[in-house]
Each structure stands twice: as structure tokens, then as C-alpha cells.
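Lab notebook, page 48
Experiment: co-folding of the full assembly
Goal: obtain a model of how the components sit together before planning crosslinking
Operator: M.T.
Materials (sequences as entered):
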Amino acid sequence: MAKSQDRYVCQSCGAVYAKWQGRCEECGGWNSVIEETAKAPLSKALGGRRGRKLEFVSLQGTAGADHRLATGIAELDRVLGGGMVPGSAILIGGDPGIGKSTLLLQTVGALAKGGADCVYISGEEAADQIAMRGRRVGMNEDKVRFAAASDLRDILASLAAADPIHAVVIDSIQTLHSDTLDSAPGTVAQVRTAAQELVAYAKRSGAAVFLVGHVTKDGQIAGPRVVEHMVDTVLYFEGDRSHRFRILRVVKNRFGATDEIGVFAMTEGGLAEIANPSALFLGQGNARASGAAVFAGIEGSRPLLVEIQALVAASSFTTPRRAVVGWDSGRLAMILAVLDARCGMTLSGRDVYLNVAGGLRVNEPAADLAAAAALVSSLANEPLPEDAVVFGEISLAGEVRPVAHTEARIKEAAKLGFTQALIPFGSGLRNPPLRLTELERLSDLLALFPPVEKRVQA
Ligand code: TYD
Ligand code: MG
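Observation: model returned without errors.
Model output:
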């Protein structure tokens, strides 16, 4: 009989099959379908028991005050939307070594300092190791309760006994193991079960639960998207490991905005908060080289100035190289196509490299114009004015389109000593704090440089 309960589940998307197959039809992944044994099918588990009657309540009556708990780490509170919501589940994903454990250790440290009861459970490190790290980041580890554990049943039992708890950290969700399942830790079934139980625990107890999730090669939190659907908030901790800056980015938040970021620097003594990051990503040196443009961006509620660097070089490949770091490669392809089709500036036969300084990832379409300016500047071998910022979206028709928050971008640039800005036409700003050059079309940008087209053909 047991045989009929076996099923085959894709480990990357969660699709279920009755038979094994080499390729998942849902997500196209190869060798991702493995056998799982479901011990008690739901329909049977429900058996003959009658459902309990639910008590319906009025939303008016239960909508209490917004009692969020500030973690004491302002950059984290910012991305959470103003502190942790009791009973919420928060998933923090990121590459190994980026600083997830450090961030959460500092978080429980700060929470404990504020008088909250916290539990930190690690399936990856021993208590000594965590204590050592705790001393390194200068936290008083006496008040936080630690355990090195990975058995889901033990963890849930201990949490229930340790009540009241304000915050729990589970580091990481992939190390947990439930004995009701045969599959290995880290498989979809295990991760899903652990996440389900812990989310239910959060709702039941009112504790905020932080789940650490590892990210796979292709950038997804391993043990698929299903966990992202179950939790209230999904944060990604990202950054270039060769740089010290780390960005905490919101991907999903039931209790706040999803475009907010928190900025940290990894130091010898743990993560330091960067309350005013606007000048961090400007690159070094005062004299700007050709191929560099300063983009006046907005990340969440804060303006952020970041240098975008481009290099256009003669190619020795049959298919020229296009390499992008910190920006969308599809977006670069689009800009190159628009430069070609609308401005007659063809870059085929040339390698194109684009880099966002400082390991930041830029997602705003407003960066189009800055990327284009960097490309044209590199091709023309002519630096942009040192004291200029650039922003604007580029349409397929070659127009420079207006973007949101023009005033905030310009104000921040002026504050950091910039004196001119290349921006979309029609800003309507009166008395701007710096000199504006308003562009209607991408070709207007090219006109600011010595004739580029000739050099391209030469
Ligand atoms: P960690 O939090 O262990 O990363 P994750 O949990 O995401 O895998 O961070 C480990 C890295 O951070 C490691 O390369 C060392 C560095 N680090 C510092 O530079 N300073 C510190 O104070 C700490 C605790 C770690
Ligand atoms: Mg870790």
C-alpha cells in the first residue's frame, strides 16, 4: 500500500509527478525530480473527524494599534517597514558568506539589549563559534539563548517550552530536518515542512521568526519559491564580497514597502549601519575618466548617487562580448539597440562592458540615460563633465522619458557638490539648485560630445 503514496517532486519548482522523469515539465530543470514518501495523505489524516466551528470576528474589533517592535538596528527596521511585526515570518536570503548570520546575531543582540527575549538556533555552527562571533561584534551574549540544533521536532518543542519569546532566528532553514519525512535536509519537502511549521509557530506564539535561506547558483532561495510564498517578508542580503558594502533589499513585504533598502558596511567588528549612503558608490578620485557617469538614483525612500562605468573596446571575437555587473543585461542590449537604430551609433564589432561601482545593483529604469552617457563617453573617449549627474529613462523610440522623484535626485546631487544635471525634458523645476540640461531625445545626448559617429566608422 505504501507504494501508492510515493510521489516525485521537482526540487526546484515543487511540481508533483506520479512517475519519475528526467526533466521537470513545469520549470524545465533536469534531474530535479526526486522521490518523496508522504507518510499520511491529507484526506486520510482528516479521516472521519468533524471540523471545529470557526469563530468569525470583525476586522474592526481586532485591528489594534500597529505594535511593531523596533529591532534597534535602524537599517533593518527601515526595510521591515518600521520594525518587526509580532507573529511574522521573515526570510533572509543571500550568498554564503555575505553576512546573514552576522546580521541576525547583531539583531538579536540589539533586541536583547532593548529587553526582548530572543532565541538563536543554528544548524550550521556550534554554540562556541556563535559566542566567538558574538564577542567579535561586541554583543553581550548572556541575554540571548542559543542552541545548535537541526531537528524540527526538538526545535518546536523547545520553543513552545521557552515562551515568551519575541524573536527567533533559524540559521538556516536548509539545515532543518523533520523525521516525518524520508528525504534529506535541504530538499523541497523538508524545507517546505520546516517553513510551514515555523510560520505556524510564529502566528501561534506571536514571536517574529527570522529564517535564513541559502541562495542557489541561479539566485533563488534554495528549496524553491514555496518558502517565499509562505512567509510575510522576504529580504535579500546582497553585495559584492570583494567590497565591504552590503545591501539588504526587500523582495516581498506584507507589512511595508518593497522598494526599500538598508545599507551596511562589513567591518572587523561586524556590520555597521550606513544611515546616509548617498555618496558611497561614487567611485574613487576626483577626475572622472571617460566612460564614467554619475547616476542620481533613488533606492526606496532615499536618493543614492552611484557611478556607472562603461568600456567600449574593439573586439577580437566573432561575437563581441557584452558583460554587465550590477545592472540588467537585457536593459543594456536595449540601450545598444536604441543607440544603433535611433542615433546611428553602431557598436557591433565592439566589446561592451558595463559596471556599477561599489557592488551595488541598480534596478531603476531611470539609470538608462546614465548608462547611455557612460557608453557614449567611453566610445568618444571624452569624459563627461566632472560635476554632472545623469538620470532618465530611454524609450525604444529613442526618447528620454521623465522619471519620478526628479527634485529629490537633484537636491541630493547639489548637496554633494554637483553643479549640473543631464535630465529628461520638461522637469518644470523652478530655481533648481544646479544647472539643468534637459534632453528630449537620446540623440541630444550624443550632440553634447564631439562627433562620435565618425570615430565609430573609422
Ligand atoms: P556570515 O555572517 O557568516 O555570512 P553568512 O551567514 O551569510 O554565510 O559572514 C561571514 C563573513 O563576514 C566572513 O567572510 C567574515 C566576515 N566578517 C567580518 O568581516 N567581520 C565580522 O565582524 C564578522 C562577524 C564577519
Ligand atoms: Mg551563516
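Interpretation: Residues 94, 96-102, 133, 136-137, 266, 268-270 surround thymidine-5'-diphosphate (ligand 1) (CB under 6 Å).
Next step: discuss with group before ordering constructs.
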